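Rotation project, supervised by the postdoc (A.L.). Task for the rotation student: set up a whole-complex structure prediction and record inputs and outputs verbatim in this book. Inputs entered:
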Amino acid sequence: MSIILTEAEAKALLQKVLKYSKADECEANILGEERGNLRYARNQVSTSGSLVNQNLSVQSAYGKKVGVATIDEFSDESIERCVRRSEELAQLAPENPEHVGVLDPQTYQKSSGFFESTAAVNADFRADAVMKSLELSRAQNLTAAGFLENQKGYTAMMNSKGLFAYYPSTSVNFTLTVRTPDGKGSGYVARGYSDVKKLDTAAATKIAIQKSLGSVEAKALEPGKYTVILEPTAAIVLLENIYFNFDARSADEGRSFLSKPGGKTKLNEKIVDERVNIYSDPSNPDLPGSPYSGDGQPVNKMSWIEKGVVKNMVYSRYWAQKNNVKPVPFPSNVIMEGGTATMEEMIKSTKQGILVTKLWYIREVDPQTLLLTGLTRDGTFYIENGVIKHPIKNFRFNESPVIMLNNLETLGKPERVVSTESDRNYLIPPMKIREFTFSSLSDAV
Amino acid sequence: MSGMGIGALMLPSVPVIGCTVSAEHLLEPWMDAPAKKKLTEIALNAAKSKGATYTDVRIGRYLQQYLFTREKQVQNIVNAESYGIGIRVIANGTWGFSATSDVTPDGIAKCAATAVEIAKANSKFQKEPVVLAEQKGVGDKTWKTPIVKNAFEIPIREKIDLLMNVNNKALDGGASFVTSNLFFVNEQKYFASSDGSFIDQDIHRIWPTFTVTVTDKAAGKFKTRDAISSPMGMGYEYLDGIAAEKIAGPNGLVGYRNSYDMIEDAVTAAKQAKEKIAAKTVQAGKYDLVLDPNHLGLTIHESVGHPTELDRVLGYEANYAGTSFATLDKWQSKNFAYGSKLVNIVADKTQAQTLGAVGFDDEGVPCKEWDIIKDGILVNYQAIRDQVKIIGEKESHGCCYADNWNSVQFQRMPNISLKPAAEKRSVMDMIKGVEKGIYIIGRGSYSIDQQRYNFQFGGQVFYEIKNGELAGMLDDVAYQSNTQEFWNSCAQLCDKDDYRTFGSFFDGKGQPGQVSAVSHGSSTTRFNGVNVINTGRKI
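Outputs recorded:
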């Protein structure tokens, strides 16, 4: 049997698992995946690898006593042993006051994240795709370092109340840094897709080459507050910190940027510019996501910020029950609506500003305000009177994405982007922001 | 990258490798060395017969036990085991690697053949053949972390009782919330190479930690204080909290050397988190910084450890972690002043009780100590067998590591430590000499550019120093500097009695990412005239 089970195979396997169960409640999750990668640096391959992985996790519960066991080998004997072990662990465990029972069967929306094209990617495909990129950088006497990784897999779950969920998916991520031989110029590109047919490593490489050559002989600007145009690759590493901190419990407990003086939260309050609309939708064809969460809840279209107002926060089933509200699972994708402006139009309408193509080493400085620090990297440019004048030296910034989205000038057209911090994919627009705080200069190229 | 901070220790993001097993299973003995040797010989022979000119084999059993609690409850206990074999070869002058959990003679032979096939396929990209520094076979060797108490033998109940006690003490002390964790790792790994080395090693690591949160709901404010423990290359004895290993600091503050009192620290943490709520916001400007070893370790890690990794200097990490300002021409000049004359930094894989200490690295090279910065001058890098010729040396430094049997080994940071002062000096002596300064303890927010010039660091607690005395707690503090400027502002060091190690338990590097654990020793150190910013904002 293949590592990647069909829906029918996954169902049959999970039914077998549940048959062994003697506990009050049982829930089983399985996954199978195959990954392949090719890494290169100094214009030649440095490492390559492949990974085949499958896992079964069984959670048994006696009342509020819960035990979990996992295995990576699916023989009948192993499965039975795994179920028994989870039951033994549950019997020994102290009561977990936050345990909520398994869900009844649910209905899930359709989401199509599995592409045969991507599933067919093999070592030869990776080598060819990388060769197309390497030929371009070698031809111009530039130095390339990159990473191409593809994945196909599925997840499935079943519980003792008959709930069943299954979701197959594929993905490919390509990142590339091109440097000039004197080390004075550096350019970057990142691409992530569910369907590998959309990946054009040569076209992507041309962008990194252009930024590498264009960033040579950067001039220093004084640190301070500037209007910035953030390409999606730069913007996402700031914005995703908003999404990571949308947990209702932390807000209720008074330890989140969504907490307010007096013990209340910012739910239904306007926190950013009214043009900001952020939502999730697993059925989006450009960014498909899983239609169910790890505990079996349906993941449906959900608005998080609408016209600048916090519309929903994430509620675990326990916290929702305690507060008598509906649970809201973590989203499987995040999408920010955009505007109509092209990058050219945004640059043209800028009297004085900075084009930021990538941000790096983002760390939270203050969880209370979501103040983040990090640096520009791999191509930062000065804009004057509507044109890019020259490359500039990199800056360190200290800025909160919440303050940033209050200083919004213009939104461009959304595109799929890979976060260089979390490796997650998103759909977000490029954006123009006023008064972005750069606090010091860096000599790094 | 220094991997995950305490704040990032949410359950799903902790790297758990392998399958969960029972706690008892973690104590079951593995196969003996002769049996492992027999299996590695199958791999060595199979690879050679397929055309490999060099082969190394690692059979590994990687054990982890992680415990997570919050307030009055246990959130999760993870007992995990990962077991398999990784085979690395050179064929057609190119590296190839393959790994399998099928540790049977057949599975091993197939895995070796795949490694050779991959090497041959990748050789079409290769411009120069791989050349390894010579390493004579060491024959049959064993090495063990010198632990007193095997953490895996301590009953789970005892560990839970400790964490519940920690949580209760923090809550009694005024904490609104507390999470506490214990991490234990045991790497049982057997290395064999076609050079004739057969090395059996048993490596233990431990990390106890917690985060205390105090909220002021009326004001809408919250502050946290993380444990000032250090991850160590020790057994459960690290948690004995023995008095002789405590270092008395100013105003009743305590530092922990090689023994940690988790309960005492939890009580202090609750008190300090409450103080932070009411602390004065810092006025931005230049200050003399007095940095505690539990803070300075991360600054050493980011601003000296990573930039002196030779693979970064050469461009192998250009697409992710970046390159380095510490270029070969600076090293060749023999006069690049990385820091002031007081700065002596050593790389080391032998110091007892550290995370980096092993007998041999994952290329079978015996471990040692060497200088990186001597009297302020950059004198060397961290290099492994296929790189060391570039810096004109004939022997690898012995700092190659893979985080699991199924990961390929590559250059990883050894312990990188700052030598203490030879003359006698305590923290109190140091503070007495500072007119306008800040005393910083603990690991906070951190960020550094891709060539390691510009950095910004926060901390856990900050005390203002006025005219030689501590003058109360400050908030919203971060310092920004340039690596060379910062190390050249190093003005004074405390002596060996104040020397302690800091550690990074999940240090990340590479694509796909791998973790490693590394220690950084130092005594409290003074840096003059460093730029401090105020990080307070309103949203």
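Student's summary: Chain A has a mean pLDDT of 96.
Supervisor addendum: The CA atoms of residues 127 and 347 of chain A lie 37 Å apart.
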